Amino acid sequence: MSLHRHNPAELAPPSGFSHAVTATGTRFVFLAGQTALDSEGAVVGDTLAEQFTTALANLLTALRHAGGTPADLARVTVYTTDVDEYRTHAQELGRIWGRLAGRDYPAMAVIGVVRLWDEQARVELDGFAVLDEPAHA
After folding, report:
1. pLDDT band at 135 (very low <50, low <70, confident <90, very high)
2. Cα distance between residue 48 and residue 10, in whole Å
3. Does the N-terminal or the C-terminal CB of the chain have fewer CB atoms within 10 Å?
4. What confidence score (pLDDT) does residue 70 get?
5. Cα-flanking dihedrals φ and ψ of residue 4, to 5°?
6. Phi and psi at residue 88, in whole multiples of 5°?
7. Which sign, positive or negative, has the C-alpha torsion 9, 15, 21, 25?
């Protein structure tokens, strides 16, 4: 599997994302939206950062179960109920990303939404990854 991140000099320098990612591989992993749900199905965390940490950890858990690693992520979309709050805490969220997923950023977007499925959820992440190895049973 090979991911190549494209960040052309003609575009503004990316911060916390790559402008484009090309991927070659044999298996795609489509990751459902993950919020800050614990194993019992309850939303945990009062702050955006706490919920982002759990949602990202949940996304990475699903990816690992499918045989992938954070480096295999080609695309992640972040949905938030408060874009201004997300922007205010962007550096903190970037540090959380770095601690859990590393420094290679996929192509990303942040989209403001009125609400998420679970009313208490403030953030949701989904994405897809490209893997080379065969699926494991």
Report:
1. low
2. 33
3. C
4. 96
5. -125, 125
6. -60, -35
7. positive
Task: Please say if the pLDDT value at position 137 is more than 50.
Answer: no
Cβ neighbours around 45 below 10 Å, total: 19
Instruction: List all residues 6 or more positions away from 46 whose beta carbon is below 8 Å from its beta carbon.
Output: none
Nearest to 19 by CA among 9, 33, 32: 9
Count of beta carbons in the 10 Å neighbourhood of residue 111: 10
Angle CA(21)–CA(25)–CA(27) in degrees, nearest 5? 110
Give the length of the chain. Answer: 137
Q: How confident is the model at residue 21 (pLDDT cuts 50, 70, 90)?
A: confident
Taking the C-alpha atoms of residue 107 and residue 74, their distance in angstroms, rounded to an integer, is: 6
Output the pTM of the full model. 0.87
Count of helices and strands (H, E) across the chain: 3, 6
Tell me the average pLDDT of the chain: 92
What's the pLDDT at 122? 98
At 133, list the tokens: 């190895």
d(CA 115, CA 22): 32
